[in-house]
């Protein structure tokens, strides 16, 4: 899991129904009704593997609930289509260029506001949608 859920967002944008754990970064663009959100139980990771460290928390999905959700989508074409359309609308609403650029502006503005950070941020290349980062100050 990469935290954001890029493959989930791409599937939703392609108007495909999505089944996902109801936890983590995907909830930023996946409101209830836009995907099948699977219940989970937070468990401690017992052994360090890759980026996942022992003692950190992991959202362990309810596999029975996931299987039930997948079965429901497979058996109910109308629901599958409705969920896919809702998913696409959610991505269009939550991950559009205007919304994302406003989030980036806000975050960069917070960095600029911190002592000693303004110069670091001003060294970043100026890219769309800003002419210069000075406009953030």
Q: How are the strands of the largest sheet arranged?
A: 1-2
**How many strand segments?**
4
Total domain count? 2
What integer value in Å does the Rg equal?
19 Å
Helix content: 40-55%
Q: Could you name the ranges where pLDDT drops below 50 across 5 or more consecutive residues?
A: 127-137
- Main sheet overview: 2 strands, parallel
Order of helices and strands: HEEEEHHHH
- Give average pLDDT, whole number: 86
Total number of helices: 5
The rough form would be described as flat
- Beta-strand residue fraction: 5-15%
Distance between the termini: 36 Å
**Derived structural class:** alpha+beta
Can you put this structure into words, describing what you see?
This protein is an alpha+beta fold and 137 residues long. It folds into two domains: 6-95, no CATH class; 98-136, no CATH class. The protein has helices spanning 6-13, 63-75, 77-94, 97-113, 118-122; strands spanning 19-21, 36-38, 40-44, 57-61. The protein has a two-stranded parallel ribbon with strand order 1-2. A two-stranded antiparallel sheet has the order 3-4. Helix 1 (6-13) crosses helix 3 (77-94). The model is unreliable at 127-137 (pLDDT under 50). This is Glycosyl transferase family 1 domain-containing protein.
Question: Which keywords apply here?
Answer:
45% helix, alpha+beta, Glyco_trans_1, Glycosyl transferase family 1 domain-containing protein, glycosyltransferase activity, 137 residues
